[in-house]
Description:
This protein is an alpha/beta fold. The chain has one domain: Spore Coat Polysaccharide Biosynthesis Protein SpsA, Chain A, CATH 3.90.550.10. The protein contains eight helices and seven strands, in the order E-H-E-H-E-H-E-H-E-H-E-H-H-E-H. The chain has helices at about 10-25, 40-45, 60-70, 90-95, 120-135, 150-160, 170-175, 205-225; strands at about 1-5, 30-35, 50-55, 75-80, 105, 150, 180-185. The chain has a seven-stranded mixed β-sheet with strand order 3-2-1-4-6-5-7, sandwiched between helices. Helix 3 (about 60-70) packs across helix 6 (about 150-160), helix 5 packs parallel to helix 8 (about 205-225) and helix 7 (about 170-175) packs parallel to helix 8 (about 205-225). The chain is globular and about 45 Å long. The two termini are about 30 Å apart.
Amino acid sequence: MVILPARDEGPRVGLVVSEILRTLPGVEVVVVENGSSDDTAHRARQAGATVLRSAPGYALALKLGFGYAEQQKAPWVATVDADGQHPARELPALIAALEQADLVVGSRFLGVAGYRVPPTRRLAIRALSAWASLLGGHPFTDVTSGLRAMRPAVYQAFAADYPPDVADANVLVRAVMAGWRVAEVPVAMRARSGGRSMHDSPRSALFALRMAQLCVVEAGLSGARA
């Protein structure tokens, strides 16, 4: 099952869904529309996706999608952004890597490069990745990548308990601290085909600082549980 959180992605979501279905025939593509003011849900359904609706928020959309995957007993779940940044051709490699890992992340900074990440954003991602690596005791290169795949034990746990506000590097720290096998595979991503990334606003620096704090929280909570 492939889950796409989507908000105001009407011009793009249909193409993304179609590309996934061509790459993985027969897979269920689930678009979780969360607070759109455009025709995102209609375009997604038209392209062949199952459409769910959640309250606004990327993390809330993912949690709802994980719950649906649990109901459907999906053998695996992949998460893909609805903005066209994640080529569907990269999905088979992530799914294959689940033979040796519980959670797989597609990294822009391993192997062949795709689009050029702006220098300031690249620096922020590398700094946050280093911080998450330090806290989790596991090397990461791309903790803000939304292109991920996971086994049932992982998405079932996320369906039961997932950060309600923001979910990014903190989720990877949680995964490592929980003892799951986490791996990265190289992917070549594309630039957004339109719309606006939640990481590209003037508040992106505040987001990075908050995420760094949430990583500390996750490490602390995991230590307390142990």
